[in-house]
């Protein structure tokens, strides 16, 4: 690790004395914090989501991905092993792989033709012996010492995770038994990719991670949800977190809606009296496929991974920082390998709810832009995260709480040392 650059070792940002019920705006706007995140968080004791095993099913398959802004290649070797390699040439630092996906045994750098295999081992150095007996690499040049940097890789339920840390627990311990159970509730059999979205957002990446844990906004901001009864806080549901409070899952059961509930009526949400109807009601109809009655499950794994079941719209989301005040949300929509044409068509139709122009999710991009624009000039300010108190309750049977947001900031503070 490069500890020589003082700017990466220090930050003037101090967390407010109130703890995780306050979030200093500076964590969304301070360039030193952003640099520290790559050192302490993305290269720190966390498991980063990289890819689906279904995206690299065959020997030689590869997929480009990112950990923070660090470019990474996920590969599958001839013996079926999944590897993750930093996509940075060991010679002079060029990107080695420019394709998003494909199948190849050898990755060759365009700059001086050094080549690497699927495990990252250096296989070839152009003009290693020089030209006409002159020049070339030193005789003691050690090929084995100049491979691509490798991440530690583990898979769970078809998800590929990678870490730069030797210390972090194995992935199942990192997730904890509750999170594992909710991951495998959705990823309960082999999946296939049925579509992708990329959403470029004009906000710091952590505002989106707060947003996905913020059950408070879902039944308020997202008019499609509550107008057409897909997800309301008045439904039976809850939030569960792992024992450390780092990861979360929220769920709700549409059949258990209690919209006449006076608390919800008293909230006077403007759209609740809407007389809007859908020209095609099947856009929002749930096709029963989960026996437990859960119609929406949103699960986030610290730091940047999200698994969703919104009715029959199943998918994963990977959040990638794109600089201090931009990020990219990459959605990969899934079906099961044994889906028939009927459920396949239902999943495609429901995919209109998500993505950059989704009936449900377009408001997130808009509102997070509002936040970033407004807090930019107030580095000493902080946001308030007190709904549901100041604790990180590991299990609630309601969703009128920002406890999962507080859990995110607990994890962030631990990893960042703030
Ligand atoms: S930078 Fe890759 S071969 Fe020189
Ligand atoms: Fe949202």
Low-confidence stretches: 1-7
Output the helix-strand order: EHHEEEEEEEEEEHEHHHEEHEEEEHHEEH
Measured distance between first and last alpha carbons: 20 Å
The average pLDDT is 92
Strand arrangement across the biggest beta sheet: 12-18-17-16-15-14-13-20
> What is the fourth-level CATH superfamily of the largest domain?
Naphthalene 1,2-dioxygenase Alpha Subunit, Chain A, domain 1
CATH fold category name of the largest domain: Naphthalene 1,2-dioxygenase Alpha Subunit, Chain A, domain 1
How would you characterize this protein structure?
The chain is an alpha+beta fold. It has 2 domains: 48-154, Rieske Iron-sulfur Protein (3-layer Sandwich); 178-416, Naphthalene 1,2-dioxygenase Alpha Subunit, Chain A, domain 1. The chain is built from 10 helices and 20 strands. The protein has helices at residues 26-29, 31-42, 171-186, 205-212, 215-221, 223-227, 262-266, 341-350, 362-375, 403-416; strands at residues 22-24, 48-52, 61-67, 70-76, 82-86, 101-103, 106-108, 115-117, 122-124, 152-156, 159-163, 191-201, 236-241, 248-253, 296-301, 305-310, 313-321, 327-336, 382-384, 395-396. The strands form 5 sheets. Strands 12-18-17-16-15-14-13-20 form an 8-stranded antiparallel β-sheet, with helices on both faces. Strand 17 and strand 18 (327-336) form a beta hairpin. The model is unreliable at 1-7 (pLDDT under 50). It binds FE2/S2 (inorganic) cluster and fe (ii) ion.
């Amino acid at each position: 690790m490069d500890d020589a650059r003082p700017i990466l070792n220090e930050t003037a940002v101090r967390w407010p004395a109130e703890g995780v019920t306050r979030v200093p705006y500076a964590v969304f706007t301070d360039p030193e914090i952003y640099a520290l995140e790559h050192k302490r968080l993305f290269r720190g004791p966390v498991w980063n989501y990289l890819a689906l095993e279904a995206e690299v099913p065959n020997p030689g398959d590869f997929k480009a991905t990112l950990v923070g802004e660090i470019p990474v290649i996920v590969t599958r070797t001839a013996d079926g092993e999944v590897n993750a390699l930093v996509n940075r040439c060991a010679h002079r630092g060029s990107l080695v792989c420019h394709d998003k996906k494909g199948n190849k045994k050898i990755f060759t750098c365009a700059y001086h033709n050094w080549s690497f295999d699927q495990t990252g081992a250096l296989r070839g150095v152009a003009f290693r012996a020089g030209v006409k007996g002159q020049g070339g690499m030193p005789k003691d040049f050690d090929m084995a010492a100049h491979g691509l940097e490798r991440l530690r890789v583990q898979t769970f339920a078809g998800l590929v995770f990678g870490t730069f840390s030797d210390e972090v627990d194995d992935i199942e311990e990192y997730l904890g038994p509750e999170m594992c159970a909710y991951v495998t509730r959705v990823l309960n059999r082999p999946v296939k990719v049925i579509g992708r979205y990329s959403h470029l957002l004009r906000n710091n990446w952590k505002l989106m991670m707060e947003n996905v844990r913020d059950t408070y906004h879902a039944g308020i901001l997202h008019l499609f949800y509550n107008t057409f009864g897909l997800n309301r806080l008045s439904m039976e549901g809850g939030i569960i977190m792992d024992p450390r409070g780092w990861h979360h899952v929220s769920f709700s059961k549409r059949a258990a809606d209690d919209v006449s509930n006076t608390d919800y009526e008293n909230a006077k949400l403007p759209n609740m009296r809407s007389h809007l109807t859908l020209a095609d009601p099947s856009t929002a109809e749930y096709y029963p496929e989960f026996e437990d009655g859960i119609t929406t499950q949103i699960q986030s794994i610290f730091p940047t991974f999200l698994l969703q079941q919104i009715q029959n719209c199943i998918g994963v989301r990977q959040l990638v920082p794109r600089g201090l005040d931009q990020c990219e949300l990459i959605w990969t929509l899934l079906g099961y390998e044994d889906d028939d044409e009927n459920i396949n068509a239902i999943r495609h139709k429901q995919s209109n709810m998500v993505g950059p122009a989704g009936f449900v999710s377009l408001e997130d991009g808009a509102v997070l832009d509002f936040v970033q624009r407004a807090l930019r000039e107030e580095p000493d300010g902080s946001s308030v995260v007190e709904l549901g108190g100041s604790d990180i309750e590991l299990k609630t049977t309601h969703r009128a709480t920002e406890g999962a947001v507080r859990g995110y900031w607990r994890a962030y503070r631990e990893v960042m040392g703030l």
